[in-house]
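Subject: design request, 491 residues
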């Protein structure tokens, strides 16, 4: 591996891209660009260089020039969109080159074709703001600060998921730079195998520089981010209402629901429900009333009729808290069937172990904060995903409904990394053991700290993705030269 700031690879790159923007350690520009990550864990990586392309052609040249060095294992690189990806090493790299796409800007709205073309350096807030002026929306992320690129290549749900599937299901065309440096469009008509693989396939196939997505009219939404302090039995009741809505014989196809519990230092607990319906109203559907604490019901504050562009600005989620307080964080996720006993037990396991960890480390680890959230994958969502051409996530409609159980941990000091990793790993292990005890087999498991990825892929699904990789990247540049994230031949 290259360790000197001016390796042969870097000299070659600068000669090939004389007008491009490179940042080097010791400069203010380098420090600024290396500090924009949501987690301080990723800010600790020190690449030998940060490359900030502003055009697809620059990226094409970069890939062509870096390829021989990367294949000889003389240099590696990472690809960063908006710095929110949680896989350790996915968007920043030690002693390599970080390709930062934040200068790749542009939002082009084609009202005649009902399409928005989004450059890879954009975030959802700017996209929503641009579309709101034309009374349009797109099936994008739930936070305005989230980058488009990472979420449109992974299994992230959009703000309104039941009618839209995953965010990646709504990408009708990817502009992508392949391992050869060739720039291609991948869609249902051109390179359809690559198009489907990119829908959930992450950074395994190339560097995507533009995402084309359909737009739609949206008359307005109703709801809010409901925060409350309560007792365990109240949150257990919220979980019961959550499961009943998810398993209803006639569940709403117009809702966005996520429920979460946060445990702060000194074991202060705050609960948070994010609930919206995607049609103009001033009243909650009766089925959702159990998920809305009395103080937040219409006429009592906390909810409102609004627009998607305004709603996402109010989602002050856990990662934002980490970023703006320059904190470290880690995430583990598993996907389960919506079994009430298992999900309530998951909260009990989570709370019991977090309280014990706070007590055990009260004099040694400052300000540990933990969060557990439940995000539904409804049957309608998985059906919509299939109807839109499918993806590479391996989630067929007959698996639904499902619940994504997500654990997040936040702390301050790098010396405590391994201790905190062990805490949340133990909690998730106990939750998965309990699920199996209840005959609820976990569908997937993702540990972003150690890039562990136990997928719902069947062997047939995985073989298909490996074949796409071999077709478009036969020498494996994006498998070995870009080591961060999950890799297709090591799952």
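Subject: RE: design request

Done. Sequence follows.
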């Amino acid at each position: 591996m290259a360790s000197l700031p001016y390796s042969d690879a870097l000299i070659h790159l600068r000669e090939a891209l004389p007008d491009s923007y490179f940042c080097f350690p010791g400069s203010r520009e380098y420090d600024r660009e290396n500090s924009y990550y949501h987690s301080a864990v990723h800010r600790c990586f020190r690449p030998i260089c940060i490359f900030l392309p502003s055009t697809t052609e620059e990226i094409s040249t970069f890939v062509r020039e870096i390829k021989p060095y990367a294949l000889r294992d003389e240099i590696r690189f990472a690809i960063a969109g908006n710095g929110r990806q949680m896989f350790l090493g996915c968007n920043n790299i030690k002693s390599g080159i970080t390709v930062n796409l934040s200068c790749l800007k542009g939002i082009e709205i084609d009202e005649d074709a009902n399409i928005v073309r989004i450059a890879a350096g954009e975030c959802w807030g700017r996209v929503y703001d641009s579309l709101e002026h034309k009374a349009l929306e797109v099936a994008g992320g739930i936070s305005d600060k989230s980058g488009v690129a990472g979420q449109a290549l992974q299994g992230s749900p959009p703000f309104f998921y039941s009618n839209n599937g995953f965010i990646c299901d709504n990408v009708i065309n990817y502009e992508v730079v392949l391992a050869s440096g060739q720039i291609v469009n991948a869609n249902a008509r051109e390179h359809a195998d690559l198009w489907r693989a990119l829908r959930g396939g992450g950074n395994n196939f190339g560097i995507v520089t533009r995402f084309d997505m359909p737009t739609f009219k949206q008359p307005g939404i109703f709801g809010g981010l409901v925060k409350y302090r309560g007792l365990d039995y109240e949150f257990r009741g919220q979980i019961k209402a959550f499961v009943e809505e998810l398993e209803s014989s006639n569940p709403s196809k117009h809702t966005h629901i996520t429920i979460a519990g946060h445990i702060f230092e000194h074991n202060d607990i705050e609960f948070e429900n994010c609930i919206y319906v995607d049609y103009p109203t001033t009243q909650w559907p009766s089925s959702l009333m159990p998920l809305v604490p009395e103080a937040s019901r219409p006429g009592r504050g906390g909810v409102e009729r609004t627009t998607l562009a305004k709603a996402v600005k109010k989602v002050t989620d856990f990662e934002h808290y980490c970023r703006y307080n320059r904190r470290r964080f880690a995430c583990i996720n598993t996907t389960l069937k919506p079994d009430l006993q298992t999900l309530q037990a998951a909260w009990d396991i989570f709370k019991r172990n977090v309280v014990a960890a706070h007590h055990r480390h009260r004099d040694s680890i400052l300000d540990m904060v933990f969060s557990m959230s439940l995000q539904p994958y409804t049957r309608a969502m998985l059906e919509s995903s299939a109807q839109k051409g499918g993806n590479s996530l391996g989630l067929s409609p007959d698996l639904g409904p499902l619940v994504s159980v997500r654990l997040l941990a936040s702390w301050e000091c790098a010396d405590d990394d391994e201790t905190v990793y062990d805490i949340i790993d133990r909690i998730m292990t106990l939750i998965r053991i309990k699920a199996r005890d209840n005959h609820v087999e976990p569908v997937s498991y993702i540990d972003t700290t150690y890039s562990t990825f136990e997928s719902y892929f069947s062997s047939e699904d995985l073989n298909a993705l490996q074949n796409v990789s071999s077709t478009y990247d036969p020498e494996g540049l994006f498998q070995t030269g870009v080591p961060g994230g999950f890799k297709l031949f090591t799952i």
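Residues 296 and 422 are 37 Å apart (CA to CA).
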